[in-house]
Amino acid sequence: MYWLFYAKSKGPVNLGEIPKLLGKNQTAATVPFLLDKLPTRPKDSPYVVWLDNLFGSTKLLGYLRKLGYGCTATACTNSGICKEFVTKKQLDKKADIEPWGTLYQAPTIDNTILQSAWKDNALVLFLSTTHGTPDLITRHRKRPSTTSTSARTARAVFGSEYSKDLPIPTFIDNYNHYMGQVDQADQLRATNPGFRQIRRGGWQALWHFLFNVTLVNSFLLSQYKDPYKFRVDLQHGLFERSTRVPIKRPRTDLPVWVKPGPRPKPVNHELSSGHALRYCSACKEPSTVKRKRSVLGEISVNTQSGPMQKQRKTTYRCTGYGIALCKEGNCFTIHCTSIE
User: Fold this and answer.
1) Nearest 5°: phi and psi at 6?
2) Whole-number Å distance between alpha carbons of 152 and 322
3) Residues 211-223, buried b or exposed e (16+ Cβ, 10 A)?
4) 107 close to 58: Cβ distance less than 8 angstroms
5) What are phi and psi of 299, to 5 degrees?
6) Rounded CA separation 141/143 (Å)
7) Span 126-161, pLDDT tens digits
8) DSSP code of 257?
9) Does residue 55 contact residue 76 with C-beta atoms inside 8 Å?
């Protein structure tokens, strides 16, 4: 899995150099950039890309073909498609003159891209490098509503029937089935969410997205039909497994400055001076030095006379453990007793 972040007014982040064949179109350049992150496939079984919510162009499909990728996409009037199809689309949009099921096709000048105009509910322009002569397949279609864009011609083929089996081109049928894979993934993640809600933003959004993808893939690989039952059984299975796996917890009854686990005996277990000033690790007696209030200063909790600190500072340390210890008193004895 790979993705690109999109920054407002800046476009895709870390896209790199845009291929010259694509001009300055950053949006189109994201397609070959992301495809390059996929595992390499043999030439006789290339990747086929179905673009959704991204109009294709003759430049983009020609560049993808040179890289070894097949592509089918809808196109707009300025995509480089032949002007005859653009004119037919503009006329049909105004007068609704093309009957349902009309198909126009023509190759590009270099004979590498198939250009198509198909009349369904409206005359739609297509570009494809994966389909040739149009084969027809019968599909059960529903009659469009009376408020549809081309209701007059689109409803005529149905007559008085609400739905009807009609022949459509194979590449149209393939596009209708494959171009919605991202939408299907979104729907599966929506029906298989984690029980814990996490606010969107930052690393939490990325982690939650990867977690949902893993959850959905596990559901698809399982034999479950109900997503809710799958999540409940998965939750119970994880809890049951956690009770069978022993958990090794570190000891909590040791002082903070003592590391758990066996320790090798120090070679030189004695006090040495000349180290940085640190708080004594074994000191329990408060300091005898009192904090003095400034003359005519305001009285507050922080300036009242009292012990300056709970532990004394010292420049002495134990050579074996590097722990700061006082020279005076029995701090060194307490330290030696606690580690035996």
Assistant:
1) -115, 120
2) 90
3) ebeebbeebeeee
4) no
5) -85, 125
6) 7
7) 999 988 777 889 999 888 888 887 888 888 888 889
8) T
9) yes
Q: What would the pLDDT profile of 36-64 be if each residue is shown by its tens digit? A: 999 988 888 889 999 988 899 999 999 99
Can you read off the two tokens belonging to residue 217? Answer: 């893939």
pLDDT of residue 325: 84
Distance CA(250)–CA(85), nearest Å, equals 74
- Measure the CA–CA gap between 167 and 139, rounded to whole angstroms: 6
Would you tell me the crossing angle of helices 202-221 and 227-244 to the nearest 10 degrees?
100
Written as six digits, the tokens of 282 are 């074994």
pTM over 0.85: no
Tell me whether residue 27 is exposed, middle or buried, using C-beta atoms within 10 angstroms of its C-beta: 0 to 12, 13 to 18, 19 or more. Answer: middle
Contacts made by residues 259-263, CB under 8 angstroms, sequence distance 24+? 263/339
Model confidence pLDDT, tens digit, residues 252-311: 555 555 455 555 554 456 788 878 888 887 775 554 555 555 556 565 555 444 444 556
Cβ neighbours around 319 below 10 Å, total: 14
CA proximity to 104, closest of 124, 122, 121, 90: 124
**Token pair recorded at residue 173:** 């049928």
Region class of 6: left (phi > 0), else alpha (psi between -120 and 50), else beta: beta
Write the burial class of residue 246 (CB in 10 Å: 0-12 exposed, 13-18 middle, 19+ buried): exposed
Nearest by Cα to 124 from 181, 179, 163, 165: 179
Q: Of the candidates 177, 175, 157, 181, which has an alpha carbon nearest to the alpha carbon of residue 167? A: 157
Q: What string of DSSP letters covers 17-54?
A: PPPGGGTT-HHHHHHHHHHTTSPP--TTS--EEE-SSS
